[in-house]
């Protein structure tokens, strides 16, 4: 079996690497070709060009690179045709991947699978229209997504979320982390203001003020801030003056495995988290860390997103567990006094903390914890779509 894969972001590279590992379990002779990052290359694929050329976000950033992106699209289509692939798997990055598939469909009938369903349940439901006629099958990370895809005429399988396959730190790792950083028995507030410069700049002040208000009630708190490498310097700047003697986890210059292990230990050591909205809520749920979600944006984005949103919560734990146990403060509601009050509430033992623990358990179960690894489940879908049913 020959599989052509395309990923354009580190998260897609991670999904692609696990998928390739699963495909090799099904068929050790499977061959790979395509575009990907270090994790996919580690599984035996030589990328057609550096994946980071596709990691462009925002209109202002995309426009100067548009000519180059169209050239890479054409090169990718040509490479697919020449590869003799039995199936093409595009992984997220819809702006690039769907353009490739649209042009490919004019030249070839090779089966196509898109990995990661668009969040049409949240906003812009007509995004599925871009996929009709060029995508033969969709693989979803969230259990409630297949009906949305199938309602648009796109066959879809839920294959599990990669968070359930992530290893967790042991209690001994958490104890060692506390000892190394002098946290002792203090309540630890894990603070996650985002991984992009705009997010950190916008949220750090709000988060800092929220922590000051919490510290007025709980002066014993300590604060731990895992920083993404691209924004680590900014995190140091923005957290000056925060209470709780912030411990900044800076992955720059560290061995990647050591940096990941330190972050896992921090999650295991945390008593509660204050986090920007996003998939980090699932990482926190995997570690049973009670959380408060907060996010703000500019005035225009607030109005636009409020008009388009079709759901009453954006926190994935709330959505997957079908509860509303995780408090969230978004846009106009992103106020430090309310955030601090919510943090104090979930920091102490009580019904709010217990409800979050129960919701976290439900979430992990529904995302596939205890089932086959998501990479293997995805591999079985890809093999079936490619016509290799005997390997499923």
Automatic annotation (TrEMBL):
Give the family per the record.
Belongs to the LpxB family.
Give the SUPFAM superfamilies listed for this entry.
UDP-Glycosyltransferase/glycogen phosphorylase
Q: What is this protein called?
A: Lipid-A-disaccharide synthase
Q: Which organism was this protein described from?
A: Litoreibacter halocynthiae
- A single Gene Ontology CC term: membrane
Q: Kinase: is it a keyword of this entry? A: no
Q: Name one Pfam family in it.
A: LpxB
Task: Say which domain of life the source belongs to.
Answer: Bacteria
Record-linked InterPro entries: Glyco_trans_19 (IPR003835)
Its Enzyme Commission number(s) read 2.4.1.182
